[in-house]
Amino acid sequence: ARHCKDNSECKGDVQPADFVPYIEYKSMLRVYQWIGAGRDSDGHLEPLAQFWLANKSSMSSEWIEDDILGSRLENEESDIIPPPRCYTSWTVQPATDSEKDMYRAQEKLRYEKPHKAYTFRMHGYESVVGPVKGIYTQQTGLNKARGHSLLVPDRPAYVTILSLVRDAVARLPNGEGTRSDICELLKESQYLAPLINSTAENNLNSVVSGALDRLHYENDPCVKYDTPRKLWIYLHRNRNEEEFERMHHLNGPGGNKIKKPAPRRQSRAKAKDPLNMKGPPNVALEPTSSPTK
DNA sequence: CAGATCAGCGGGGTTCCCTC
DNA sequence: GAGGGAACCCCGCTGATCTG
Q1: Chain B bases having any atom below 7 Å from a protein CB
Q2: What residues have CB less than 8 Å from A289, skipping those under 6 apart?
Q3: d(Cα A265, Cα A213) in Å, to the nearest integer?
Q4: Which nucleotide is closest to the Cα of A257 by its C1'?
């Protein structure tokens, strides 16, 4: 991989049609990180290595000037997407009854201690979820759960559509997936009311859409939507339970509760401006990628 | 009672697919 | 290639409920 000063300089590079970056540039730390673990293979790397060997004499080794990337550092620092803690080749599919039982047993444990982080272990993949927002002690559960058309009425009050969607996002394989993947995982929850017809299914889709919407405007959001790849990414996918609990209490009662104003999105025309997309050709400045299915 | 949180709603924008 | 429709996300507003 090499840096180009601008896009035009990169036109000579070759990338496979199904190109996905294998290294990520951490602008905050100014380091490159290998993010291809589990996805790399000689089949992908050999053509690139051959091309490099054939063309290395004509390639520039110049680095991006600080004034090109430097001015963007502050913005990017908040946009860094961590790689998953572990990888899985499992893809989302409807759960069998035994899989549902297994998940529900774990989910029960997770919500027995809502003030603690929890690690779901399914399909050989570990998904760590943080404590439920706003819960800092072992609750007595006296509060009544708010009514919700898609949730069962006899559930703890702190089990909301937001918490369930957050768990479903956390359980996405490698922390990435589509909205329908999230819906599929959500259906395994014991707190979701049975979907009786296709109308209820559509309703679930729009409810999840709204929940994802709200989740990614939170302070320290747990999800981000990757527009080019049309995937939702679990931003906390590399945190462990200790980190979750530490951050939970930092933001908890007595902690820093200064609410960050909702990040105003760039105007769409601006966000899509190709001139603003200065990422090096083979480096993910933003999301990590997984192979196209 | 005020503020925070959760959730629903609807208009607007973008992208993709299909048809002509 | 242009146009239309569908699907989806973006964003602000509002109301219900809970908490201190």
Answers
A1: 4-10, 13-15
A2: A20, A21, A229
A3: 13
A4: B4
Residue A37: phi and psi, rounded to 5, are -50, 130
The nucleotides of chain C lying under 7 Å from a protein CB are: 8-12, 17-20
Give the CA A121 to C1' B3 distance in Å: 38
* pLDDT, averaged in runs of 10, over chain A (293 residues): 35 45 50 53 60 59 37 43 78 88 90 82 88 61 65 77 85 83 85 74 76 72 73 80 71 41 36 34 35 31
Which three-class secondary structure string do you get for A230-283? CEEEECCCCCCHHHHHHHHHHCCCCCCCCCCCCCCCCCHHHHCCHHHCCCCCCE
Report domain extents, chain A. Answer: 7-81+278-284, 97-250
Rounded CA–C1' distance between A142 and C1, in angstroms: 63
- Answer yes or no: is A213 CB < 7 A from strand C: yes
Rounded-to-integer distance, Cα A72 and Cα A82, Å: 18
Whether A270 CB is under 7 Å from strand C: no
Residue the block writes with tokens 């927002």 = A133
How many Å apart are CA A164 and CA A203, to the nearest integer? 15
